[in-house]
Amino acid sequence: MKETHTEKEHLEMDIQNQSAIETAFENLLWSTRFFVLLAVIFSMVGGIALFVVASVDVTHVAQIVYGNYFGHGGHVKDFHEVIVTELIGAIDLYLIAIVLFIFGFGLYELFISQIDIAKRSTASKILEIRSLDELKDKLAKVIIMVLIVGFFKRAMNTTYSGPQEMLYLSGSILGLALAFYFMHKGHGSEGSH
Question: Are 54 and 90 in contact (CB under 8 A)?
Answer without folding.
Answer: yes
